[in-house]
Design brief:
The protein has one domain. The protein is globular, with a radius of gyration of 17 Å. By secondary structure, it is mostly helical. 80% of the residues lie in helices and 0% in strands.
Length: 131
Amino acid sequence: MSILSAYRYFFYRTYVQQKQFFGESLPRWTAVLITSLLLSINVLTLILFAKIFTGYRVRIEIGYGIVGDLILVFISYFLFLYNNKDELIISKFSLETEIQAKGRRVWCWIYEIGTFVAFFASVFILSPATR
């Protein structure tokens, strides 16, 4: 599975979870926002780890962070919602077998948990108390 296909599958799983929890209350947009948020955390974590390994002082202004997050939301919108791509993604992955779904769900959980573990680990390493 390619990275883009995995990202689409993560959108699909997030969409399904949002639809189960909250019904028809904007599950597509919620899935776009959640996938964008996790991708944003991944980018920030990469920047923090680059700082850890290079020692280069990185300063991210809040305005640049907001603009970067909005760009990721726009990219996600065009990947998932523009021209009803979400319907194709949902129909493609809704045909998976239970064995495929179970294995892919495990990878989604690993991605979600790994995202937060890596982020908090990088923040912990950079915190003044650990120096």
